[in-house]
Specification:
This protein is of the alpha/beta class and about 325 residues long. The protein has helices spanning about 15-30, 40-45, 80-90, 105-115, 140-160, 175-185, 200-210, 230-240, 260-280, 300-305, 310-320; strands at about 5-10, 35-40, 50-55, 95-100, 120-125, 165-170, 190, 220-225, 245-250, 285-290, 290-295. It binds adenosine-5'-triphosphate. Its EC number is 2.7.1.11.
C-alpha cells in the first residue's frame, strides 16, 4: 500500500473534474494516505507547483465547473526531458502514485510518463468530448451536452418566429459526439460531424424544397471539426436564399455547474482511482460501460480511437 499519492487535472477543463478530484482526495484521507495536488496540469508538475491537500482543501467544490487545481497545455511535457523533470519533482515530495484526470492527450502523456517507470499511474477520462476509447462516459460530457441543448432550445424559439435557418457550431475538433447527442435531443434537421460525409449542395436543395412546402425554420448543428459554422452558414444562406444565422457557442460549453450524472460518476470514479493507485495498480483508466464501472488498459485506451456510434448517425438521418 502506498503512503503518498498525487492528483492532477490536464487538458481542457470539464465540469465534474472538481468532483473527481474531491473524491480522490477524500478517499486518500479516509485511507490514511497523504495526498498532493499538482496545480496547472503537466506544466505545474514540471514547475513543481505541487502542494499537499487535506479534506478541507476540497470543500465547497463539488458544485463548481472548471477545476480548482487549474489546468494547462504543456509543450515541455511532450519532450522526454520535460517528463523526466516532472517525475523528479514528484519523487522529491516522496509521491509514490499518480491519478491523472484528463482527455485523450493527457492520458497519452500519462502513458509516456509511465514508460519512464517509477510509480503507478491511474487515469480518469475528463473531457467534454466523450472521445476516450474504452469508456462510453467521460467526466463533463453530460453537463456540456445539456448546456448545448439549452442553447438549441432557445435558438429554436427565435428561429421559428422569424422563419430562419439557424446554424449552431459546437465543440468537437475530432469527435462529433457533442453535436450528435445534442442535435438528436434538440430535434436538429441536420447534424454535421467530422466522422460522416455530408453534401452541402444536396442539403441546400432539400432545405429550399422543404421551405417551399411550408417549413418555418431549420436547426443545423455543426461540430467544429466538420467545418466552420460561419462558413457553412454563409454557403447555406447564399445557396438557399433563406435568411440564415449562425451561433458559435464557444467556451460557454465548458462551464457551468456539473449535472447529477457528472457529479455522481466523477465521485465514483475518483474513489476507484484512488483505491487502485493506493494499492499499487498501474496503467489503467477507469470509466463506465453500460452503466457499470470498467477498468481499461491505459495503453489500449490511448492507442485506439473511439468512433461515433453509427446507430446514432443513422437515427439522426431518420428523425431529421
Ligand atoms: P481535451 O479532450 O479536453 O482536449 P486533452 O487531455 O485531450 O483534453 P490535450 O491538449 O490533447 O488535451 O493534452 C493535454 C496535455 O497533455 C498537453 O498539453 C501535453 O502536455 C500532454 N500531452 C498530450 N499529448 C501528448 C503526447 N503525445 N505526448 C506527451 N504529452 C502529451
Amino acid at each position: 500500500m502506498l503512503k503518498s499519492i498525487a492528483v492532477l487535472t490536464s487538458g481542457g477543463d470539464s465540469p465534474g473534474m472538481n468532483a473527481a478530484t474531491r473524491a480522490v482526495v477524500r478517499t486518500a484521507v479516509f485511507e490514511g494516505v497523504k495526498v498532493w495536488g499538482i496545480y496547472n496540469g503537466y506544466q505545474g508538475m514540471i514547475e513543481d507547483d505541487i502542494h499537499e491537500l487535506t479534506s478541507r482543501s476540497v470543500s465547497d467544490i463539488i458544485q463548481r465547473g472548471g477545476t480548482f487545481l487549474g489546468t494547462a497545455r504543456s509543450d515541455e511535457f511532450r519532450t522526454e526531458a520535460g517528463r523526466k523533470k516532472a517525475l523528479a519533482n514528484l519523487k522529491s515530495h516522496n509521491i509514490e502514485g499518480l491519478v491523472i484526470i484528463g482527455g485523450d492527450g493527457s492520458l497519452t502523456g500519462g502513458a509516456l510518463l509511465s514508460k519512464l517507470g517509477g510509480m503507478p499511474i491511474v487515469g480518469l477520462p475528463g473531457t467534454i468530448d466523450n472521445d476516450v476509447w474504452g469508456t462510453d462516459y467521460t467526466i463533463g460530457a453530460d453537463t456540456a451536452v445539456n448546456t448545448i441543448l439549452d442553447a438549441i432550445n432557445k435558438l429554436r424559439d427565435t428561429a421559428s418566429s422569424h422563419r430562419r435557418i439557424i446554424v449552431i457550431e459546437v465543440m468537437g475538433r475530432k469527435s462529433g459526439w457533442l453535436a450528435m447527442m445534442s442535435g438528436i435531443a434538440g430535434g436538429a434537421e441536420y447534424i454535421l460531424v467530422p466522422e460522416a460525409k455530408f453534401n452541402i449542395d444536396q442539403m441546400c436543395q432539400d432545405l429550399k424544397k422543404s421551405y417551399t412546402s411550408g417549413r418555418r425554420y431549420s436547426i443545423i448543428v455543426v461540430a467544429e471539426g466538420a467545418g466552420s459554422g460561419i462558413e457553412i452558414g454563409k454557403q447555406i444562406g447564399t445557396k438557399t436564399g433563406i435568411d440564415t444565422r449562425v451561433s458559435v457557442l464557444g467556451h460557454i460549453q465548458r462551464g457551468g455547474s456539473p449535472s447529477v450524472e457528472d457529479r455522481l460518476k466523477a465521485s465514483i470514479l475518483g474513489e476507484r482511482a484512488a483505491l487502485a493507485v493506493i494499492s499499487g495498480v498501474s496503467n489503467v483508466v477507469f470509466g463506465f460501460n453500460s452503466g457499470k464501472v470498467v477498468s481499461i488498459d491505459l495503453f489500449d485506451s490511448v492507442n485506439n480511437t473511439k468512433t461515433l456510434d453509427p446507430e446514432l448517425v443513422r437515427l439522426a438521418r431518420v428523425l431529421a
